[in-house]
Amino acid sequence: MPSEGATILHADLDAFYASVEQLLDPSLRGRPIAVGGSATGGVVLAASYEAKAFGVQGGMPGWRAARLCPRLTFVRGHFREYQRLGDAAIAVLRDVTPAVERISIDEAFLDVSGSTHLFGPPEVIGAMIRRRVREEVGLPISVGAARTKHLAKVASQVAKPDGLVVVRPGTEREFLEPLPVGLLWGVGPVTQQRLADQGIHTVGQLAQVPGSVVEPLLGTAVGHRLSALTHDEDPRRVDTSRRARTVGAQSALSRRRPERDDVRATLSHLADRVARRLREKDLAGRTVTVAVRFAGDGRATRSWTLTQPVAATLTLTEVAERLAWSAIEERGPAAEITLLAVSVSHLTTQRTVQLELDLPPQDPWRPGTAPGAARRAVDGSMDRARARFGRDAVGYLPALLGRAGGVPEEFRELAERDL
DNA sequence: TCTGGGGTCCTAGGACCC
DNA sequence: TCTGGGGTCCTAGGACCC
């Protein structure tokens, strides 16, 4: 267990999308703004600190945000700018050390144990990062430093907005004890409520309770993580080479009774998005999962594990269709659906040319009649046309239908991008 | 007046194998 | 005539994160 110092840093851009909007348009500075959504619908993707003061949060329906904050300004996102500026901020971190683990568009862990001889102790490095991102990128960023990733992440949350918090080795318990349990990574609304039901509100109170009491409430994994945290035994290291384990796409739909053509159109659009991304990365996956959300808050998933990995749009579409109808039919004839999702997991790296050498005949859901070679040819020519003329040059017809009511295409591109 | 899209990880039960 | 234990894989659901 390393104990030299607080050499794990977590750097997190503050209210990222909203801060970018305020950077781009000075008239928005100092004002409550929401990125995405509107006063009548949609969802808020991010809120400025001025808006958060009214209780506006990311993920909230627009009409609710407007009610909480009548002077709220809704702005459309500049998603390409988020990509560019997020990358620029991460580039500053990589100047400090190559040991950077980016975990989202706007945050990353750094292990600076090899950099202190160059730049000074962690608090100096943290201050330097914050100054450089402010000066060179124009955005506020908060930094937490501690002996472990989890603690560094908690520290950066405590540092927000626009601050730096260093948890010195030996002071971890003191730091954690007064904090609300909801600040811990992995403790969301449900767990928080379960703990509150037991009278546990702070990390200090949680630490008093024996593991045998907490674990049945939270499950052994969460229980162990929390106990490791409060006993300073979090072993996780900064990992610079994370690989995706699933690739998926989803579409929210206006509430509707599922019709064959409609469902097929949406699923082939989603399958096309997923399969194209798999092929771009020379990946294929054995398990296909479909999720269906029903009106009235029900949700079902169906999955199917094939004997060979798939990356062909048509194969994926066919399997997805069967899975979706299995879930819909089980729900009963009155079911209305509000979302469809397709994802692929059990990913393996493979040259595209080796794929779909056809599923064995004993596979009860052996997809259709087009042989593997024909499917590869179709996908290959689509991929090439898109490479030359852009993504919208060719597409499955539903790709055009699927737009209605959704989020801007640039947002999907931002979300699906590799970190 | 019902709410986006991208993910990760965990759990529990059943099938199957040795 | 019926009883063990351990391991792996698959499926479905759920909590959580940005």
Helical content stands at: 40-55%
Shape: globular
Poorly predicted runs of 5 or more residues: 357-364, 398-404
Structural class: alpha+beta
In round numbers, the mean pLDDT is 89
Largest sheet, spatial ordering of strands:
5-6-1-7-8
Rg computed from alpha carbons, rounded to a whole number of angstroms: 24 Å
User: How many domains make up the 3D coordinates?
Assistant: 3
Order of helices and strands: EHEEHHEHEEHHEHEHHHHHEHEEHEHHH
Separate helix tally: 17
CATH architectural group of the largest domain: 2-Layer Sandwich
CATH third-level topology of the largest domain: Dna Ligase, domain 1
The CATH superfamily label of the largest domain reads DNA polymerase, Y-family, little finger domain
Main location: cytoplasm
Keywords: Cytoplasm, DNA damage, DNA repair, DNA replication, DNA-binding, DNA-directed DNA polymerase, Magnesium, Metal-binding, Mutator protein, Nucleotidyltransferase, Transferase
Catalytic activity: DNA(n) + a 2'-deoxyribonucleoside 5'-triphosphate = DNA(n+1) + diphosphate
EC number: 2.7.7.7
